[in-house]
Amino acid sequence: MAEIAFLGLGVMGFPMAGHLQRAGHSVTVYNRTAKKARDWAAKHGGTAAETPAAAAEGAEFVFACVGRDEDLRKVTLGEDGCFAAMTSGSVFADHTTVSAAIARELAEEGAARGIGVLDAPISGGQAGAENGALTIMVGGAEEAFARAEPVMQVYAKRVGLMGPAGSGQTTKMVNQICIAGILQGLAEAVNFTLESGLDPEAVFDVIGKGAAQSWQMDNRAGTMAAGEYDFGFAVDWMRKDLGLVLGEAERLGVSLPVTALVDQFYKDVQAMGGGRNDTSSLLRRFRG
Amino acid sequence: MAEIAFLGLGVMGFPMAGHLQRAGHSVTVYNRTAKKARDWAAKHGGTAAETPAAAAEGAEFVFACVGRDEDLRKVTLGEDGCFAAMTSGSVFADHTTVSAAIARELAEEGAARGIGVLDAPISGGQAGAENGALTIMVGGAEEAFARAEPVMQVYAKRVGLMGPAGSGQTTKMVNQICIAGILQGLAEAVNFTLESGLDPEAVFDVIGKGAAQSWQMDNRAGTMAAGEYDFGFAVDWMRKDLGLVLGEAERLGVSLPVTALVDQFYKDVQAMGGGRNDTSSLLRRFRG
Amino acid sequence: MAEIAFLGLGVMGFPMAGHLQRAGHSVTVYNRTAKKARDWAAKHGGTAAETPAAAAEGAEFVFACVGRDEDLRKVTLGEDGCFAAMTSGSVFADHTTVSAAIARELAEEGAARGIGVLDAPISGGQAGAENGALTIMVGGAEEAFARAEPVMQVYAKRVGLMGPAGSGQTTKMVNQICIAGILQGLAEAVNFTLESGLDPEAVFDVIGKGAAQSWQMDNRAGTMAAGEYDFGFAVDWMRKDLGLVLGEAERLGVSLPVTALVDQFYKDVQAMGGGRNDTSSLLRRFRG
Amino acid sequence: MAEIAFLGLGVMGFPMAGHLQRAGHSVTVYNRTAKKARDWAAKHGGTAAETPAAAAEGAEFVFACVGRDEDLRKVTLGEDGCFAAMTSGSVFADHTTVSAAIARELAEEGAARGIGVLDAPISGGQAGAENGALTIMVGGAEEAFARAEPVMQVYAKRVGLMGPAGSGQTTKMVNQICIAGILQGLAEAVNFTLESGLDPEAVFDVIGKGAAQSWQMDNRAGTMAAGEYDFGFAVDWMRKDLGLVLGEAERLGVSLPVTALVDQFYKDVQAMGGGRNDTSSLLRRFRG
Prior knowledge:
- The first copy, chain A, is 52% helix and 14% strand.
- The first copy, chain A, is an alpha/beta fold.
- Chain A has two domains: 3-163, NAD(P)-binding Rossmann-like Domain (Rossmann fold, 3-Layer(aba) Sandwich); 170-287, Orthogonal Bundle (N-(1-d-carboxylethyl)-l-norvaline Dehydrogenase, domain 2), CATH 1.10.1040.10.
- Chain A is elongated.
- The relative contact order of chain A is 0.10.
- Chains A, B, C, D: One of its GO terms (biological process) is organic acid catabolic process.
């Protein structure tokens, strides 16, 4: 069993850190709002620290799950950041969805200090974090991956090493590109279905076994047709991710016409007040 | 067992009519090119007729699977078309993907003659036709459906009555709208994957269990990454279907921004010489 | 001075026929609603006929300005259509915006009868028709053009022979493609201006002399910013024209991604009840 | 006559600074590559300085025309930047196209030091800079504007105060949004024209006086049809500007669907090797 620090106790990090403690690790947590860390310790029995550095003191593994590039930079390289406190041979694994650029930068910073750094964004949503059924897409060196992978398994159903530093983030981007196309198509399809007077349940049941099938159709067509958009990943976060996608595509010189267009459509949803709706709310552009 | 006529022996109709004959029905076939009808009869043991009307003489069920609206009009209402030869109480079921408008028109024509008319487009491709595993989306009256459904089961894995006349066609349109969005997203994703230096097999394996999953990802991401576009439904036919979709959306006043855009992108693929490529060839716009 | 028939007395045809009569020609008019023809004769002093054929009897020139392909087909080749009444050596010039296909078909029909046929769609709007300041884009044979051109000058500021039959229509399509791109860009720009808190009048004044200038900016940016959409060519008619554009582009295998997308956006405007708004109402998609 | 510093002697800044010196001002220039500054002084007779601070020493007006946000930050607030050397009561006017965010930031920085700050991006291209015929869109306080405006007139045909700090930049963004829509529409139109077999010169001549007219049509339709893309503002710079536009639209919550799409299309042009082509090269996506 290992000494572990976990930085960031949002809707994802809170249960993830809990899984680690329950698995027998000795977990010290840090959260920007200290009360959340104390609540976590009260519930799970680990320790709450006041700073990322304090949490990382003596840890073999430091995990992070914060918000954006600047938050990640702060908890790693900022004042009282964890990197200064980590010892050579320890591993830092970041579960935040951030830019591939900062993932590569942290990998270099870590290498200079003897810290193994992994970018390890996740998918599976809040339910996946709570049930320990996340998919983790990892970028970084094989050696660090080999050590961290068994630890992360406690909250994962799937962990894959995708390539060198940044590859976890770019794999997550591929995921979001696919989702953008699927959901805009599905939104147009659901709207067409309703305007045609067809019964959405019957329609998606009959076409849902063939070439038009998608996880989103299986799980969201019905809720979309019912005008319910309260099933997880929010538009505001999707737009953050699509911003990262478009930024990396810029670096690569890769054209993403429909992804860029759907990103604008999500902005329309935000303008309608739907920033906290789930990503299937593209249908609202047609139906209000 | 029933007297059945089958009009149109293309890659779909040929094996479908064969399933009917093998199931014990007495099948008479018609095909525009008469030789194909004689070949069918030689292989399956039914009868070849010279005209749709001749094939339909005395039939309880007439099935059609031709190309476009004008072909369907010809074999039903044209000179020597089947409608004139069909008797009151018989059923006409059309497996062609055509406009909802002609489906409704034929239903009215049939009603005036006491013929039950079903629009019954299919999905599942050539393999589905050969293996008797098609999905059939049916529009029309319940009574006609109740009689034809057991007959169609011989080549179907799934048959659903979607609503009144035209509903089979509009359901098929929903299917194609979904596919257009999925495949453009997947094309952007595969291109991004390759330009990122990621291994497509690893990427789509790890993300293929979650919210980005689709039948197309499961079955086509790998072939797309390999630049192989020889897996069935051709771009030329997809554009025919998207033309029907956009026409019906016009009638309904439904906006389909990404479907319309992807339809133009498929036109680019045609201009690159890819009209016979399968629908996943949207990737060629990025990679040649 | 010539014997002239004019078929179709809408907001364009009515004043155009008036210009011809005032110029000294002997004009006989036909309109689907006969009262309009009688009103015209009462006002301008020419003759009203009951059918296209009756109007065309003995005419050296027959002009038409009706609504759609099917209307044009009716007044030319339909029962009591003008073609049967026209004599060899006469000229038929069509001012309707219709498909290039019907323009080519009528040219062939005319050639078989010794009638010179010109497709001659116009731009310039109702004001242009009233002030005799239309632009006329003509397709057809040089000889017919040479004879009709001086007659059409009476309501034109510009008449150009663009090429063989259909070329007038395809030239008009080029016009509409340009307008679609300009107006969507301008709608996004006006919305951005207003949301930025800038003064639209000042902004379009300062940028209106350079590379962003357009007739639409000069004439519509201000009215758009004021939410006024009552300045002529209606969305319903623009969508008719864009349908012709997309159909001809289909025949040519030409991709029109933004034109197709803007056509869908105009459909959104129709769904908002803006079918009679002018074409600058794309801004309503952003501002209601 | 005034003491003036000019920072940045690119294709725009070099002739602009020359106009100031020729008008009788005493101009000190700075350029990142010092040789360019010495060349300028050799040609125009002013002074070359080694740093922005040195150039700004004692100046009443400091103008800048550099590349991007980070360049502007460096010459103003960086080591040896001009702000530290400027005295209370002096005016800083930036002609670079940069983000509205940095324009607002510099305005605040300036206010704290008693420096009047204007964001004053330009349009009109290299020819406009050389001929003193630029359009200048200015954001900032009226008092600073009143003092700088007569000085800037020496290289301007048009100078407008658009509003508070940042308004010059946002006005320039409006300009670029308009251009993106116009040029994509025009590219589709030129391609359609050529594929239709029409003569582009005749087509754009006849439609160029009406509702489809634009500066781009007047000046670029012919060169586009000839496949010539060597007329000024480069795609690489347009994409920089569209990046600023999309960033500001993000801040404002304004949707720009076609602007975002055209930005991706320009990326395609870059991928074809057209980064140095002028902005009309969107046509290359269709014609190679």
